[in-house]
Amino acid sequence: MEVFAFFVGGILPYITVVLFIFGMGYRFYVWAKTPQPGRMTLFPAPDSLAGGVLAESLFFPSLFKGDKILWLFAWIFHATLALVFLGHIRVFTALIDRMLLAFGMNPEGIDVMSATAGGVAGVLLLTTGLLLLVRRISVRRVRDISGIPDFSVMILLIAIIVTGDLMRFGTHFDLEQTRVWTVSLLTFSPIVPPNGGFILHAFLAMILIIYIPYSKILHFGGIFFTQALVRRR
Ligand code: HEM
After folding, report:
1. Which residues span the domain enclosing 9?
2. What's the CATH number where 52 sits?
């Protein structure tokens, strides 16, 4: 267990950073290099390209037009995921706490706000994630176009959310440990938090991060390329 914990906390983070940066760089290079034979405008050209891309990325209007129930689950899922990512800044650094203290909040208030936002986001993320997985399994036309990678990534995401929620609602985790861990990684002298739940959560999360550039999860990056292509004037 100790060897695995050191691998996850002391070695895997470096492997993750290298593979993620390399993979993202490669994917963006391929997209940017892909020839575009003619100018395409699939939609009536909107007034503002940047505005259209931003609206599509934030509110998914094309999906709303196509399937309102799927839009609802998908939007809540992505919005809470964004909230959880923002919340994770507190996991890695005390910067947010310092800023909020400077704005006059007290430490108890910060903890209550974080526990409420993190708790609500954790439950909503798990619920909508499970609903999206159930839809993929139970709706025939969706099941027919789903492959093993689609199911695996949903199961991996749900496992990450469950292990995160267990820390949030069950075992509780002292964030000072992850902040020390972050600094120790930056100075190449890893101090790994001795907590099985944390190690499992971090391991699954890093597998996901490594997989992102090589998988369909990268649709969040592709949207800027495809939307720019179809909406340009
Ligand atoms: C290496 C990367 C990650 C680390 C070190 C990490 C660490 C943590 C920690 C320490 C907590 C407990 C927070 C608390 O109780 O105050 C937590 C909660 C959580 N994590 Fe992560 N996490 C990582 C990546 C992720 C990813 C990629 C996801 C989602 C895809 C995720 C989803 C969650 C959820 C849903 C919770 C519970 C709700 C919340 O506290 O926000 N985590 N994580």
Report:
1. 2-231
2. 1.20.950.20
| Helical H segments across 103-218, by residue range | 107-138, 140-144, 148-165, 175-186, 196-211
Distance between Cα 164 and ligand 1 center (Å): 5
For 7-51, the pLDDT digits (tens) are 999 999 999 999 999 999 999 898 888 877 666 655 555 555 677
Q: Is 21 exposed, middle or buried (0-12, 13-18, 19+ CB in 10 A)?
A: exposed
Per-residue pLDDT of 154-163, as tens digits, reads 999 999 999 9
Judge if the beta carbon of residue 8 lies within 6 A of ligand 1.
no
Total domains in the fold of the chain: 1
Regarding the beta carbon of 185 and ligand 1, being less than 6 Å apart is answered: no
Ligand 1 and 165: CB distance under 6 A: yes
pTM recorded for the entire structure: 0.89
